[in-house]
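Database export, one record per block. Field names are fixed; values are copied verbatim from the stored entry.
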Amino acid sequence: MKKKGVEVVSLNLKKIPEAVSDFFIICEANNPNNLKAIADNVEKKVLEKCGEKPYRFEGKQGEKWILIDYINVVVHCMLTEVRYFYNLEEVWHDAERKEHTENKD
C-alpha cells in the first residue's frame, strides 16, 4: 500500500490574518484505503521525527477527507475528487504556494 500522498502542496498562511494556522499541507489519494494509509503514515512520521501528536485528527473513519491538526500546521489528506471540489488552494489563493515532488533517490 502506497503511503505517500500525491500532488503535495504546502500553503504558507503566515501573512494572512484570518488564517487558522501557519501552514496547510494538502495531498491526495485515489481511494479510501490509500487515504487512510497516507494519514496514518503522516501521523507516524511526525511523531517519530518531531515528537508531536496531533491536537485533532478528524475524518479518520471517513473515506474522503482526513484532517490532521498540529495547530501551526494542518495536513489535509483528500480523495482527488474531494480536493478539486473544495479547492483549498483557490480559497487560500493569497497564501504562498509550494509544490512538493517525490524524491526519486
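Remark 1: Strands lie at 6-12, 23-29, 56-58, 65-69, 73-79, 96-100.
Remark 2: The chain has one domain: 24-100.
End of record.
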